[in-house]
């Protein structure tokens, strides 16, 4: 999900309180379940749809195309602020007053499926065209409960002009290469910090995990959480080394000043999502787009990154199930996805939509598409938000006080075992 740091703090706090009380129905695990086929023919009737943030404000315009294709159908969209969304959903589920369909944050899928609120993906909706990592965000156990609507992933942003001063004409492709280039940015290009990395705290797991996945780590083993493993330890040690070696700022603020620091050259590299392109170009001014580029996450065993975005689901309580799923199918159509990118700049989850000239013609966007082919998502356990808050806390000790990463991960594993998966 794309959010500001303030919104992230609010959502994680809310989710942690809610998830501790949530169980999970027995039918969400085990063998994959599939929903009843969507009927042929045009959609009819009126459906209610909830969507958050800017997407919620823009979706009514896109829905007009669906109504034009299905003259007997009507889509009523309610826009919901991100910071109120989680509670609104859980209250509606409890009261059995959910919308027919909705945009849902990827990290909420396990919880909502656990409450037996979501309708499994119909067997005649083909999910093979989505980016694999994005499609995985819709699954709880082996069952898919929706589609990935739009996606985002994280790349390495770097100042190409300062990289040349540091002696580099290309982006690093390995862990050692990244560290060497970051140090050269300090020593030869005048940077205060070689690369901006989040120094622990809320959401820092999203900085750690691209390195962990690149090292081959998995956060799930035999249906349980797995934090105390060699691959994650290797990534945590590498992550820590940027701070202990003085390459990254261990005193960086919770809400970093990424754009001005990048534009000034104070911090000439950072890792973030596609929304930062317009942000840094706005601050950098005219011509700044030619002073930076993006690259895939440097690899240990492979290049991988975090896949986020939002899914789209249909609720079990819907009285207009067929029309709701037909609307979801409409949102997954490559032409619709390409048009939605033009309206929202949300990246398509359907791989073929990237052939559209608006995306294929942008060299920086191409790299996001390439990274999405190997990007991964965290486990869909209902307790994920609660458990990962402990990982954030321990990583802050690792980055800011030099705590032992092995001991930190053992603590996280013990806490995760105590909390459980919620299954």
UniProtKB/TrEMBL annotation:
Task: Fetch the CDD domains from UniProt.
Answer: PBP2_MalE (cd14747)
* Keyword annotations: Signal, Transport
Q: Which Pfam families match?
A: SBP_bac_1 (PF01547)
Signal peptide segment: 1-21
Task: Please give the superkingdom of this protein's source.
Answer: Bacteria
Checking Gene3D superfamilies in the record gives: Periplasmic binding protein-like II
Family to which the UniProt record says this protein belongs: Belongs to the bacterial solute-binding protein 1 family.
Q: Under which name does UniProt file this protein?
A: Sugar ABC transporter substrate-binding protein
The organism is Phycicoccus sonneratiae
């Amino acid at each position: 999900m794309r959010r500001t740091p303030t919104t992230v703090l609010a959502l994680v706090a809310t989710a942690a309180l809610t998830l501790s009380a949530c169980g999970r129905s027995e039918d969400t695990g085990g063998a994959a379940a599939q929903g009843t086929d969507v009927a042929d023919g045009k959609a009819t009737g009126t459906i209610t749809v909830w969507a958050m943030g800017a997407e919620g404000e823009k979706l009514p315009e896109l829905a007009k195309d669906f109504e034009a294709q299905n003259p007997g159908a009507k889509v009523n969209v309610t826009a919901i602020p991100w910071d109120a969304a989680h509670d609104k959903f859980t209250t509606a589920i409890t009261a059995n007053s959910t919308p027919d369909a909705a945009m849902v944050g990827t990290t909420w899928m396990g919880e909502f499926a656990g409450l037996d609120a979501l309708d499994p993906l119909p067997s005649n909706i083909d999910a093979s065209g989505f980016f694999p990592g994005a499609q995985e965000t819709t699954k709880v156990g082996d069952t898919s409960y929706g589609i990935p609507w739009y996606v985002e992933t994280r790349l390495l942003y770097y100042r190409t002009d300062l990289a040349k001063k540091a002696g580099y004409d290309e982006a690093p492709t390995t862990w050692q290469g990244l560290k060497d280039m970051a140090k050269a940015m300090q020593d030869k290009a005048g940077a205060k910090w070689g690369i901006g990395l989040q120094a622990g705290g809320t959401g820092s797991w999203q900085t750690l995990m691209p390195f962990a996945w690149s090292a081959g780590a998995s956060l799930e083993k035999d249906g349980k959480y797995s934090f105390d493993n060699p691959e994650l330890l290797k990534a945590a040690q590498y992550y820590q080394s940027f701070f202990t070696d003085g390459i990254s700022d261990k005193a960086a603020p919770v809400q970093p000043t990424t754009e001005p620091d990048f534009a000034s050259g104070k911090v000439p590299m950072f890792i973030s999502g596609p929304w930062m392109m317009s942000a840094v170009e706005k601050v950098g001014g005219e011509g700044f787009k030619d002073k930076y580029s993006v690259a895939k996450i440097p690899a240990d065993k492979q290049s991988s990154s975090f896949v986020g975005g939002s899914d789209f689901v249909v609720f079990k309580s819907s009285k207009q199930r067929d029309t709701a799923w037909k609307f979801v199918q409409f949102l997954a159509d490559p032409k619709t996805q390409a048009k939605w990118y033009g309206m929202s700049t949300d990246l398509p989850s359907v791989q073929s939509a990237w052939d559209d000239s608006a995306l294929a013609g942008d060299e920086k966007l191409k790299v996001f598409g390439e990274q999405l082919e190997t990007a991964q998502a965290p486990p869909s356990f209902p307790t994920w938000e609660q458990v990962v808050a402990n990982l954030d806390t321990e990583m802050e000790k690792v980055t800011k006080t030099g705590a032992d990463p092995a001991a930190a991960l053992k603590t996280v594993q013990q806490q995760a075992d105590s909390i459980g998966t919620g299954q």
